[in-house]
Queue: 2 jobs
Job 1
Amino acid sequence: LDALGREIGRQIKPRWKSPSGADVDQLVTRLSWELNVDGSLAGEPRFISQSGETPSNQAQAKVHRENAIKAVRAAAPFKLPPEHYALWKSVTNFRFDKRLSQ
Amino acid sequence: MMRMLKFLLLALAVLASPALAQIEGSVTDESANDLNVAIPVMPTPQDTPTPAGSTATLGRSIAEIIASDLNSSGLFKPVGPAGIKSITYAEATAPDYAHWSSTSAEMLIQGFVRANPNGEITVGCYLYDVALKSETARAGYVIAPRDWRRAAHKCADSVYSKLSGESPFFDSRIAYIAERGPKNKRVKMLAIMDSDGANHQVLTTGQSIALTPRFSPDYKSILYLSYLGQKPRIYIFDLASRNQRLVTESSNPTFSPRWSPDGKTILYSMAIAGNTDIYSVPVSGGTPRRLTDGPGIDIGGSFSPDGRKVVFESDRSGSQQIYVMNADGSDQQRISSGGGRYATPEWSPRGDLIAYTKIAGNFRIGTMTPSGGNEKLLTNSWQDEGPSWAPNGRVIQFFRTSQGGTGKSSVWQVDLTGVNERRIPTLMDGSDPAWGPILP
C-alpha cells in the first residue's frame, strides 16, 4: 500500500504546484478521491482538510486547495496495476505540501 | 506461483477488511517557485496606427510588459513573446493546446489589441491552463492608446491574482528621490515612476534637498521633506498644479511625514530643544496634536491599515527600537526584542507584518508581526534601508547604498521569501522609494 501511495505521489508530483509566498510551506491540504479501474477519476477529488494557515499565507490557502485538486485532475488517468485495483480504488487523505527551495 | 499466492492472500485480506483498501500518501512541491507561463505577441485584427504606435506594435509591447511584470514577482517563469509561436487573431480566444502541450508551458496568456472607431483601443487578456486545456480567467480593457502600459499591468495583475491568490500590485506608482552629484554635494529631487521603473518624472529642480516622499492615497499629492537652507520642513506637493504648501507652520525642524490610510491625517516628527516627538495634524490644517512625550527621539510613525494604531521608532530604552501605540498616543508598547537596532518601521497595507531596517553591523530589511514575533531578515547587503510596501503587502522596495564612500544609491525590490531580489531602473541614482496604492 505504501508503494502504491508513493507511485500515486510520483504521478501527481509534476502536476502539483503550490502557490508561492510567505509561510506557504506551512500549508497542508488533504484530498480524497476514487478511481476507476482504467485509472481515471470516478467523480471529482474531495477536499478533506487544510492546516497551517497563518495571517501571511491566508491568501494562498484557497489557491493551495484549488491547485491540489487541479493536480489530481491533471495527473489522471493514473497508471497503476489493474490487478491491484481493489487496493488503489480509493485514495484517502492524500497530503499536498511545499518545501521551500532556497 | 508464489506471486500468485501472495496476490490471492492480499486480495483475501482486502476483501476481509475493506478499511485496508484505502491508499494514503503525500506529495511535496519541491520545485523552484516558477510557474512556466507562455506569452505570445497579442495579435490585432487589422494593424491600425494610434498616437502610441500601431496596434501590432502595441500587441508586442504589451506582451513584453506582462512577461516582465510576472518575472519580477518571482513566482513565474515567463516565456516569450520573443522566440515562441505567434498566434492569429482568431487563436487568441481558441488556443492551440496541441502545440502548447508540447512545450514547457503550464499556463498560457493570450490576448489581442483592437482599434475602436472612437480612437480608443480594446486590449483582451485571457489566461489558459495548458494541462487542463481550459480557460482560467479573462479580462478586457478599453483605454486611450497612451494608457497602453496600464492595460499591460492590469492584465499581469489579473493573472498574478488568479494564480497566487494575492491582491494585485503592478498597476501602481512609486514616489522616490532622484539623486546625482558627488557625496558632499548631492542634488536630491522629488521624482515619480511606474511600479516597474517606467515613466520617470522629476518634479523638483534640486535647489532644495528633497527626502522621504509619500504618495497620498488618492495619488493627487506627495508629502515630502525639503531642506531649504539648514531647516527640514514638510511640504505637500500637488501633482496637478505643481504647487506646494507647508504642512505645519513652525520654526522647529519637522520630518518623517506619513499619511493616514484615509488621507485625512498626517503624522510627522518635530524636534524641540533636542527632544523629538510624533505629532498628528489634519491635512486640511488645524492644531497639531502631540502623540508621544517621553525624553529622547520618537520618530517615523506609520499607521496600521485600519488607522487605529501607529508603529514608530524610539530610543527611549537607550537604543533605537520599534514601538506600537494607539492612534491617539495611548498604550505605547515596545515590540522589537532581537539584538541590534531597528529603524524606519512601516506597517504593511495588509496589516499582517511590519517592515523595518535592522542595524546590526550592516543595514538589512526585515519583517516581524505587529506583536513583534516571527522576525525575518530579507536582505543582506552593506546598507539596505527605508522599506516601503507594495499595495498588496507581499513585495517591499528599499534603497541600497553602495560601499566605498561614493554615496551612490539605487532602488531595489524583494519579496517576502527574501529570494527574489531585483534592482528597479531609475534615471539617476534613486533612494527613499515610497509605493502608492493600486491605481483606481
Note: Chain A touches chain B through 48 residues (CB under 8 Å).
Job 2
Amino acid sequence: MRQRVWTALMLLGSAVAAAAQPAPSPGEFVPASSLPPVETFPAAPMVIVAYGVVWAAVLAFVWYIWRRLQQVERDIDDLERRARGR
Amino acid sequence: MKKIYPGLVGVTLALFALAPVLVARAPFESTMGLIQKIFYYHVPSAMMLFISACVCGIASLVFLFTRRPGADRLAGAAGELTVLFGLIVLVTGPIWARGAWGVWWQWDARLTSSLLLWMIFVAYLLVRRYGGPGADKLSAALAVFGMANVPFVYVSVNYWRTLHPNTNVVMTLSPEMRGPFWFCVAMFGLLYVTLLVLRTRLAEQRARVEALYVAFDDENP
C-alpha cells in the first residue's frame, strides 16, 4: 500500500516537474520582420487630427458668433433707416 | 468693456500659438508614447465642459427664481459652450482611445455618462430654440438637471471599473508634464471666458435690437 502511494506521489511529482520546465529553446532565431503582422496605428496623424478638431471647433464657433453679430449690425442699420424715414 | 475684447482674444490666440511648442517639449508617456499628447487638450476641454455645465445650471437656477433675462442669456451662452467643449471631448477622447486602447469607444461609466451629459445640453439648446412658449423655464430646468450630473461623471472613474484613467492622474503628473498641462488648462480657461463674454454680449445686443423693433412697431403701427 505504502509503495503504491509513493509511486503515485512520484508520478504526480514528475508530472508537476515536467509541467514546470521552461519551454524548449528554439532551434532557430526568428527575425522580427517574420513575425505575424500586429495591428499598429501611426500616432502622429491621430494627434494632429485631434488638435485640428479642437482648432476647427473653436474657429467654427467664432465664425458662428461673427455671423450673428453681422445680423445684429444689419438690424441696427435697418432700424436707423426706419428712424430717418419717419 | 469693449476695450477688453481685443485684449482677451489676442492673449488667447498667443497662448494657443505657444501651447503646441510646450506640449511638443513635454516628455513621452512610457506606455502610450506620442498619442498621450492628446491629453493636454482633452482634459482641459473636459474641465471646461464641467465648468460650463455648472455655469449654465447656476444661471438657470437664478433665472428660475428671479426671472432675470440676463441670467437666461448667460445660461444660453454657457449651454452653447458646454456643447462645444463636450464635442471636443467626445471627438479627441475616441481618437486617443483608438491609439492607446485599440478601440474607438467603450460603453463604460465615464464615456457613457459624458455622452449623456453632452446629449442633455444638446437637448437644452433644442428646447430653447424650438420649445415654443414656456421653453425658457423648461430648458432652465433641463440645465439644472444637466449640472446635477457633473459630479457623477467626474467620480465615475473612481467607483466603476473602466479603461479610462482615474482622477488621480492629474495630481500625480511629473513636473515636466505638469507645466504644459496647467498652461493648457489656463489657455482653455481664458478661451472659455473670452467666448462666454462675447456670446453673452451678442445675446444682450440681440435682445436690445428686438426691444427696439417692438418699441418702433408700437410707435408706428
Note: Chain B has a mean pLDDT of 91.
